[in-house]
């Protein structure tokens, strides 16, 4: 938590209380030095705890102010910024400030309808707009108030009234193929001729894999710094939980989103084959440590050699792995996956892919060679 940064101050307050109590309680009430010190220590810690509670409640209240986004130069915004920067800890770990962030706002039904019409108007003809306007009026008179009430109840009970609905009905319910129609996360197209001094595909890949794993560790342990705007305003970092080790499992109606925290392997795609690569080694003392870039590169070289042999052995036949099925619609892929799971070896292989931290594809085309790292399986 962010409060832990101020922990040493608690000891200071306790010490100050103990010193003052020795003077006051010993002289006024005849208490022994030990009794006065104990009372002072408890008093100092109590005062510190109360001040901390007040401080964080003030921060919570300040973070509900939204005009800083629209009226940055006003005196009110400047005073707000000065007070918030004074109270906000200078170092905040990831997720440390989540509980103090304001809830995602729920607009009134009237505002939602007005904004919808203003957004649609430039995009349609007058006749179409009139029909949409009529539909909006019907919504306000009939289903709208009931639906608004449901959202208001969600607003009271949920941290974010929208996120679960968005994930489930807008994203996971989509039936389009992910590679074609979904904006999945990846670390891009690295053309090595443009990256100096290292231009070797596998050494580049090894470095990126190593630092991606370090980043994953920092997210899972919460040691990554919390995102802040101008080092003052914290941003919600909940979605960091889904950066790595997260898989969208195909289902016939609505997909499942699963996260496997603490996973210690990745999957490497090379020349049509898939390989599991464990990212940790254990020394003679039993201590576990993340592989170095050089160790990762050595393992990648072994993978490329083996993939080349498999490719040569296959000859003109094409090696096909299950990733090809992600290019079809989600319902069809769900049925194929269900059929594949009946085979024990297929089930094991799918589990390795779906629980991996992320996937790495080593492009084997002509120069310039590329790496594709997908954090979202």
TrEMBL record:
Pathway annotation from the record: Lipid metabolism; fatty acid beta-oxidation
Keywords: Acyltransferase, Membrane, Transferase, Transmembrane, Transmembrane helix
SUPFAM superfamilies: CoA-dependent acyltransferases
Keyword Transmembrane: yes
Catalytic activity line of the entry: 4,8-dimethylnonanoyl-CoA + (R)-carnitine = O-4,8-dimethylnonanoyl-(R)-carnitine + CoA
UniProt keyword Transmembrane helix, yes or no: yes
InterPro entries linked: Carn_acyl_trans, Carn_acyl_trans_N, Cho/carn_acyl_trans, Cho/carn_acyl_trans_2
Taxonomic superkingdom: Eukaryota
Residue ranges occupied by any Choline/carnitine acyltransferase domain in the UniProt entry: 105-367
Transmembrane regions: 34-51
Name the UniProt record assigns to this protein: Choline/carnitine acyltransferase domain-containing protein
Upper classification of the organism: Eukaryota, Metazoa, Chordata, Tunicata, Ascidiacea
């Amino acid at each position: 938590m962010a409060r832990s940064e101020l922990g040493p101050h608690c000891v200071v307050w306790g010490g100050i209380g103990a010193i003052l109590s020795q003077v006051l309680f010993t002289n006024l009430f005849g208490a022994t030095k030990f009794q006065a010190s104990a009372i002072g220590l408890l008093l100092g810690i109590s005062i510190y705890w109360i001040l901390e509670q007040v401080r964080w409640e003030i921060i919570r209240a300040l973070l509900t102010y939204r005009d800083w986004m629209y009226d940055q130069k006003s005196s009110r915004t400047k005073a707000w910024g000065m007070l918030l920067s004074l109270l906000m800890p200078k170092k905040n770990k990831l997720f440390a400030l989540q509980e103090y962030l304001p809830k995602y706002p729920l607009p009134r039904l009237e505002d939602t309808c007005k904004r919808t019409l203003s957004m649609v108007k430039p995009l349609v003809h007058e006749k179409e707009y009139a029909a949409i306007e009529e539909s909006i009026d019907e919504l306000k008179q009939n289903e709208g108030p009931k639906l608004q009430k449901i959202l208001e109840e969600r607003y009271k009970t949920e941290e974010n009234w929208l996120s679960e609905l968005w994930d489930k009905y807008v994203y996971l319910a989509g039936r389009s193929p992910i590679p074609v129609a979904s904006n999945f996360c990846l670390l891009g197209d690295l053309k090595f001729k443009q990256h100096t001094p290292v231009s070797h595909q596998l050494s580049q890949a090894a470095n990126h894999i190593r630092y991606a794993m370090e980043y994953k560790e920092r997210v899972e342990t919460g040691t990554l710094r919390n995102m802040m705007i101008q080092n003052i305003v914290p941003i919600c970092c909940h979605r960091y939980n889904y950066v790595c080790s997260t898989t969208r499992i195909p289902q016939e109606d609505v997909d499942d989103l699963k996260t496997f925290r603490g996973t210690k392997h990745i999957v490497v795609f090379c020349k049509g084959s898939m390989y599991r690569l464990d990212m940790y080694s254990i020394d003679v003392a039993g201590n576990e440590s993340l592989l170095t870039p050089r160790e990762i590169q050595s393992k990648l070289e072994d993978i490329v050699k083996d993939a080349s042999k498999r490719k040569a052995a296959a000859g003109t036949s094409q090696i096909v792995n299950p990733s090809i099925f992600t290019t079809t619609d989600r319902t069809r892929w769900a049925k194929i996956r269900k059929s594949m799971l009946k085979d024990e070896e297929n089930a094991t292989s799918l589990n390795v892919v779906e629980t991996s931290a992320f996937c790495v594809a080593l492009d084997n085309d002509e120069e310039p060679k590329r790496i594709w790292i997908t954090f979202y399986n």
